[in-house]
């Protein structure tokens, strides 16, 4: 255990999760053995540390270590980058060039994102693994190399094999030893320590005070899904350090920096002013606006009904335009007072009693029972979407002004625009 702690300190690894310790221990055990290794883990989970551990604890530690991101190399130049090329072998080849395998000879080569490697190059890599041989692009001379290959991927290679995107024989040659790196969501206990490390390093680098998280903020970090793993946590920590209003950050403020969990599920936090009752902080504000607007519209319709009743079907042009607006939205056709007063009254009653668009609600915090107004509610998501759309139209797409109009945070508005497809 002392050795694992020393390795963490040496390579800057933070955390005490048993799965993480097991991965480090496996890397140390396999290091002296001349086997290829395959590191499996999600993007951003920290796979890049383990090839370095294997190299530094092997007999090749004083030899070259070369890291190659296969996903960042265009398919057309992959062979040239890995194996080198001869002068004149293709347009732009103005001189001989060494490839990464030649540069890493006698040492270790780390092939990151191996699942992105083209099939043609996979066949050449298999030859390197089996015979230690390769040929430069544009050359027929066989060259020898003595390298240890450590590969990593966030792709399910077994699925890639089934779909014909990865060679099965190469998979088994690479998979001498498999090391699985746990995703951050499975290391919840390590998250507060990682956050503290990132914000402290960033604050020191930029000469600014570090932030401290409250207990509820730490719990929020632990519950979050972290699809981007450690890389995403580092980005969030740096954003909080720069943008947080106070140096002590609670869960309410921290949530503004966290995107929605995968699957579109938002984290629900208690409102700091309601004594711990579970509610939505920003979404509730939109709901209030929707309900109050709806109540005003209902009151308008009732006034129209009373106006017609008092004047035997006659109403002002202004009231008739209001009535027409509601009935068009409801898909109804109303006649004017000159045509049929009874049809008008029947249609208005249909609007007021429409069960398709209006339902009773019992939330006394939002609506108050009176003799003049009924409690009613539309579908919340649809009305929320429409309210956001109208706010954006009113301010010509300026999201900052629309957010102020709605009374919500700008980040919340961005998330809602994404959710409802209002880009």
What tags apply to this protein structure?
423 residues, two-stranded antiparallel sheet, 47% helix, elongated
What ranges have pLDDT less than 50 throughout 5 or more consecutive residues? 268-282, 327-342, 354-378
Sheet with the most strands: spatial strand order: 2-3-6-1-7
- Amount of beta strand: 5-15%
Order of helices and strands: HHEHEHHEHEEEHHEHEHHEHHHHHHH
In total, the number of strands is 9
Distance between the termini: 52 Å
The shape, in one word, is elongated
Biggest pleated sheet: 5 strands, parallel
Structural class: alpha/beta
What's the average pLDDT? Answer: 80
Explain the layout of strands and helices.
Elements: H1 2-11, H2 18-30, E1 37-40, H3 49-56, E2 65-69, H4 78-83, H5 100-103, E3 108-112, H6 119-131, E4 133-135, E5 142-144, E6 148-153, H7 157-162, H8 168-174, E7 177-180, H9 191-206, E8 212-213, H10 215-223, H11 229-243, E9 248-249, H12 251-255, H13 283-310, H14 317-329, H15 341-353, H16 380-394, H17 399-406, H18 410-420
